[in-house]
Amino acid sequence: MTGSILFEAIVFLAGAIICVSIAKRLGLSSVIGYLLAGVLIGPYVLGFIGKEGEDILHFAEFGVVMMLFLIGLEIEPKNFWNMRKTILGMGGIQVGGTMLLSYVLFAFFGFDWKVSLVISMAVALSSTAIAMQTIKEKGLMDTTFGTSSFSILLFQDIIVIFMIGAIPLLSNTTLETKTEDHGTSMSLIDSLPLGFQTLAIILSVVVIVVLGRYLIVPMLRKVAKAGVRELLIAAAFLIVFGISFIMELVGLSPALGAFLGGVVLSNSEFKHELESTLEPFKNLFLGLFFMAVGASINFIVIANNPLTIGGVLIAIIVIKAIVLFITGSIFKLKLDQKLLLSFSLAQVGEFAFVLLSFAFGLHILEQEQMDMMLVVTALSMSLTPIFGVVNERFILPKIGTKESVKRPMDHIAKSHKIILVGFGHFGSTIGRFLRSHGVEATILDHDSNRVDFLRKMGFEVYYGDATRQDLLESAGIAEAKIIISATNKIEVSKAISKIIKEQYPHVELMIRTKNRYDAYELLNLGHENIYRESLDTSLVLARDVLSKMGFRKYTLNRQVQNFKKYDEDSLRRLALEPKREEDYIFKAKQELAQQEKFLNEDLKRGVVEYDSHWDSEYIRELLNKK
Amino acid sequence: MKKILILFSHPRLEQSRVNKILIENIINKKGVTVHDLYECYPDFHINVPFEKELLSKHDVIIWHHPFYWYSCPPLMKQWIDMVLEFNWAYGPEGNALHGKICLNAITTGGSKEVYCSEGYNSFTVKQFLRPFEQTANLCGMTYFPPFAVMGTHNLSDEALDEYKINYGKFIDLLQANLSINDMDNKSFINDIPKLKTI
């Protein structure tokens, strides 16, 4: 019954949909939902998924790769370089401290030193998938806690390469048996001497950076010009698969390579396009990954020695949490941030599966030891979201040292996010003025040639179609305060307006329109912030004409302001009148009649509006009447 | 309870320590309207009908502004020019403001000592404010001595805090009812006995 792929797909998808929506309804992280779904469909509860769960686990690790690629996209090379001290410092202390303590623990309980060392390596690593997914879901990426967690996880991603390199040295078996057993490895460089291995690793990193700059970006430009939506999806996958392949070729972690690739592309105009394309796939793959973890929990092993497993599990989590707390203290994190860090990284991560099975293949570990550690790993991962809930609901509220929310006046520019759609002549003027006040809007434009050109001029412009909700989302619409539609295409403005009205009513929409008719439509949709491009400039020109004819400039300036107010008011009155728009000729006639009406009214009223200020003649006249 | 209109004019509020604190303290008081002129009319195009309406809804008008070059900032003068119309605020039929109370609330960089015949400013604050006093008189309003925060260049945080509290108390007194007899011939409303006793 479990043989068919379709059936498996149905089991996984249904499990995910049911459990995740229940978890979300209860206000829990989606990770808990996925893990629970995995346990349910796994071999020990409903039994829909048997041994193949492990294959799925390998396949679903691709979700972790995608996640790191997406994280890389959000970190610009400059910021990455700035983080080097936290990465090395926090990561080093965490991995070193955890390894030391757990080695002492296992050695104390009589394990062989090699076994203790391998286990302590596996235990030191946390789960990037679980921790980062939870952090992103809660929107904590920009806090000290977020960056600290990320730094530590990144360090682990790097150090795991050396761990995998070191494990064979512990083995008594010969190299030949090793390559046979370690079937997943297809590394080219295993047979090379150590110096060349290092060289190959450095070379592959350089290759990724160069490829990113000189091959991927031009390719994406070509694809964007073709204007076929699914080609962009294909291109995004090609990038991630390609990088993973290169990395596996030289024996590096594909996740690390994907992260590097992301960092390289984070400066490119396709950042948000790639994000919005990969985001849903990443989430699905990660979900699959979590379900596979849930399904791999071996309940028979637990039932056989519940006390040992429970003891080891608690000991490891306590050790990890203490080391994390100390690491946080050394780097002067606030108490609530330290607690968050300790709780969210205290699990044993997915790398443990890789290290443990690798060491088992080299006959360092015995079957029993490996089974125990695999169960502990899976259990600790499943417990993380639960710890998070406990910390969040019961511990943090008692401390009350939240991230400071007080922002001084000059941070207006930083704390309000602006999205600018359309960066033609109109939009770029807006962008320049905002920038002169330190406000860096996120700019979206649909013309790939222009995007390319403007990026060369130093503007942060992204390619993409702003009428797509997913693109607006990756541009940060959820946290935005204002979105500016600076395109003169009414269809685009209306599409954005629809998304804002339905999904993001808190975001203010400010719209450029071509003429009165577009303005009517938008007014009737309930928008107030409408800027007609045909109003201001034409009045300034008219003012200068009258000035050249001898009218005084200040008087003209005041009349321009009066005229504008009059016109804006009449626009709002006319928008309310029912319009029979289907008849084009009628519309054209109506427009002419309207223009004539305005002109006549202006003439009748004399100079626009009654104005007696600074008018001594008027006072004399009134006084003489008496 | 008297309704109070604060016509606040400061061209660079974001840089003003004293005025920001004074205004923040009273902006949410019941029966007090703080009308931020530079925020409402950045292009100096004052909506006269709206301003007239606003004036007629209030009993006390406070011109609150920094004391630039012995006078008010330009938008405040623009407001006086535009809003106080002939035959509305003054002139044979101009009695819209009759009976209302009017005063200046000012902040000066120089201390009280330099505003006298011996000081380098040669004249007192009261003398410099004559145009405002006469404007109020011509419109049939009762003009009170000014509320003044002086020497803002060297004002300590504690002293500023005291001014802030006093401005709030003074607004309370105005709302409750304060007459010209309470002024006790003081040059500054800060010094009247009623404000000193509470």
What topology emerges from the helices and strands here?
The complex is a heterodimer of chains A (626) and B (198).
Chain A: H1 5-25, H2 30-41, H3 53-74, H4 77-82, H5 84-108, H6 113-124, H7 128-138, H8 144-170, H9 175-181, H10 194-226, H11 229-249, H12 254-265, H13 271-295, H14 299-304, H15 306-330, H16 335-344, H17 351-361, H18 367-399, H19 412-415, E1 417-421, H20 425-435, E2 442-445, H21 448-456, E3 461-463, H22 469-474, E4 480-485, H23 490-503, E5 508-513, H24 516-524, E6 530-532, H25 536-548, H26 553-576, H27 584-604, H28 616-625
Parallel strand pairs in A: 1-2, 1-4, 2-3, 4-5, 5-6
Chain B: E1 4-8, H1 17-26, E2 32-36, H2 37-40, H3 48-56, E3 60-66, H4 74-83, E4 101-107, H5 125-128, H6 130-138, E5 142-143, E6 147-149, H7 157-176, H8 193-197
Parallel strand pairs in B: 1-2, 1-3, 3-4, 4-5, 4-6
Spell out the key features of this protein.
A: 626 residues; mainly alpha; Rossmann fold; 2 domains; six-stranded parallel beta sheet; 28 helices; 70% helix; B: 198 residues; alpha/beta
Short synopsis of the structure:
The complex is a heterodimer of chains A (626) and B (198). Chain A is mostly helical and 626 residues long.
